[in-house]
Structure to design on (581 residues):
């Protein structure tokens, strides 16, 4: 067999090494998730340490620890570590050597060759320095490839169709956006831009700033001069930030952050996702400005982009997908782990260098979105069944996502939690998988409900709805949520719904097998329910109950195909609306 060649993503914050195993590109693990922090240090005995161990000592021994060396590649400045100075290549070589040893341990053979990735904007000098780092580590660098090229290979190495791809790469400390053209596995970078000092670390800092402000204002404690507490807050901030990618709220708890009048002070602070997004909104807008610039540089309109790929851990923040979807009208792809995607692509290139026709990346993803339905607005029009996806199409499984919902009126007694599968913004155009009735504790309107969907590899979807104030909850399970409908069946549903739009009176009689769940409301009833939803806050409590009952009964009747009943009920609802005014 050919001499093995590994693929290496030598990142600013983290690095990974991957190899083709049984035809599949695979990240090499060593009792971990494969992610090696790009940190090098000298321990107290002067021994070189790399990765997590070095990162852990960074706070207590910054003079013996080097981070983000990638930013200095290609420069001749020497870096101080302990009592000596080193070239950036030498520090990078330590990271590469650690990755080489990991590969040798996992594959049980000696490794002498690698494909290494670099940012598309790297100059010749920076690329040369990367080659030299490889050589110092005992690796012959057979190819240097661009990171966006590697990401495209991870997704598209087997797709024969020519495609234009936008790669949005937001990591811990840097942001890059590139547009590439991939054809027959050959990737050409058309434009590349970004910001070398923007990433997840900035978001952590914003959370830390919020916490120190709270500690100073509400707990009357000054912790800014205390490096240990600050390091703990930074870690807590990152953990909270990551949790907010999946949950609407997080409670940040840190015990013993200081003492006041002989009393120990603990931190307990709730941060909402909405608050967090507001804090980082300016940064996110800057990334979107770069996206616009990348399009301009490539002389392209958003519609010319066939696919958007997410790279870098920070792209797990759902708001990023939302912004890109808004701009491009298509959902970005993050199904290949965004932390590992570049290394997986580097290994595909390495496999090619070895003469292997390798190889795709193993994926378990959901082919559909799953969500629930709420009273809301679509294009500014009040609409009774707005679809709110919780688990998006192409999400890697298992997946768990929560979102926050609000009751509509005071003392609302019940809420019906629906589970839909599909992509349409109108819930009724999607496929209803289940309905669960939740009896609520009397409370003012706008009380918070958290809904969680958990979808596992076997397609079992677990729904949990929790009343935030009391912790009361209901749970439901939908077996075989993914396998239920084939693509053909889904497109059949979609076709029927499209037909329905052109003929609102069509009641689907042509297919008696279709359950109540598939039938959208005729547009006149939908408009009426939208009007009622908009008026509900103005109604007296008795009228509200009556209105909600009528709205539900109308939907049920229309859903069952009993349009006459639905219209009779609609008359009653119209009368209430008339006297409310
Ligand atoms: P990278 O440089 O690509 O390894 O990305 C690392 C950055 O991604 C760090 O700032 C992490 O805190 C951040 N990150 C990882 N997972 C998540 C997540 N689920 N939500 C938000 N940020 C994340």
């Amino acid at each position: 067999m050919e001499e093995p060649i590994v693929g290496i993503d030598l990142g600013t914050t983290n690095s990974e090494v991957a190899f083709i195993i049984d035809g599949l590109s695979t990240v090499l693990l060593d009792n971990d998730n494969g992610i090696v922090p790009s940190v090098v240090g000298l321990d107290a005995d002067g021994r070189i340490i790399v990765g997590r161990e070095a990162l852990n000592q960074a706070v207590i021994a910054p003079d013996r620890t080097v981070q983000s060396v990638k930013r200095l590649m290609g420069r001749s400045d020497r870096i101080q570590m302990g009592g000596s100075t080193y070239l950036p290549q030498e520090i990078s070589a330590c990271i590469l050597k650690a990755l080489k040893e990991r590969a040798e341990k996992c594959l049980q053979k000696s490794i002498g060759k690698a494909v290494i990735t670099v940012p598309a904007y790297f100059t010749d000098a920076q690329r040369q320095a990367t080659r030299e780092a490889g050589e110092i580590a005992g690796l012959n660098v057979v190819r240097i490839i661009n990171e966006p090229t590697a990401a495209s290979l991870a997704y598209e190495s087997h797709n024969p169709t020519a495609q234009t791809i936008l790669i949005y790469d937001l990591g811990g400390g840097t942001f890059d956006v590139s547009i590439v053209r991939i054809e027959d596995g050959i990737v050409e970078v058309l434009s590349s831009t970004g910001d070398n000092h923007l990433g997840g670390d900035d978001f952590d800092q914003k959370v830390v700033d919020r916490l120190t402000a709270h500690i100073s204002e509400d707990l009357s404690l000054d912790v800014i001069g205390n490096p240990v507490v600050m390091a703990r807050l930074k870690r807590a901030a990152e953990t909270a930030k990551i949790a907010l990618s999946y949950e609407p709220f997080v409670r940040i708890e840190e015990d013993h952050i200081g003492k006041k009048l002989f009393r120990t002070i603990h931190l307990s602070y709730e941060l909402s996702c909405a608050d967090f997004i507001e804090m980082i909104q300016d940064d996110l807008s800057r990334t979107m400005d770069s996206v616009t610039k990348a399009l301009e540089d490539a002389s392209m309109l958003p519609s010319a982009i066939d696919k958007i790929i997410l790279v870098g851990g920070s792209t797990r923040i759902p708001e990023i997908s939302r912004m890109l979807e808004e701009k491009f009208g298509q959902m970005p792809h993050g199904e290949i782990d965004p932390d590992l995607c570049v290394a997986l692509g580097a290994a595909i290139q390495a496999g090619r260098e070895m003469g292997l026709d390798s190889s795709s990346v193993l994926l378990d993803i959901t082919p559909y979105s799953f969500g629930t339905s709420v009273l809301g607005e679509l294009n500014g029009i009040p609409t009774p069944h707005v679809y709110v996806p919780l688990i998006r199409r192409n999400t890697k499984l298992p997946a768990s996502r929560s979102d926050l919902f609000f009751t509509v009126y005071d003392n609302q007694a019940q809420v019906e939690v629906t589970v839909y599968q599909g992509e349409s913004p109108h819930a009724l155009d999607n496929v209803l998988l289940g309905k669960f009735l939740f009896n609520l504790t009397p409370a003012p309107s706008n009380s918070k409900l958290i809904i969680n969907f958990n979808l596992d590899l076997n397609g079992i979807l677990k729904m949990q709805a929790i009343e935030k104030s009391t912790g009361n909850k209901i749970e439901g399970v939908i077996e075989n949520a993914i396998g239920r409908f084939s693509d053909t069946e889904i497109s059949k549903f979609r076709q029927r719904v499209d037909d329905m739009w052109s003929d609102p009176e069509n009641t689907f009689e042509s297919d008696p097998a279709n359950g109540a769940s598939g039938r959208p409301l005729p547009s006149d009833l939908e408009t009426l329910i939208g009007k009622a939803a908009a008026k509900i806050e103005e109604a007296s409590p008795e009228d509200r109950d009556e209105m909600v009952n009528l709205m539900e009964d109308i939907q049920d009747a229309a859903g069952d195909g009993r349009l006459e009943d639905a219209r009779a009920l609609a008359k009653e609802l119209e009368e209430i609306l008339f006297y409310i005014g």
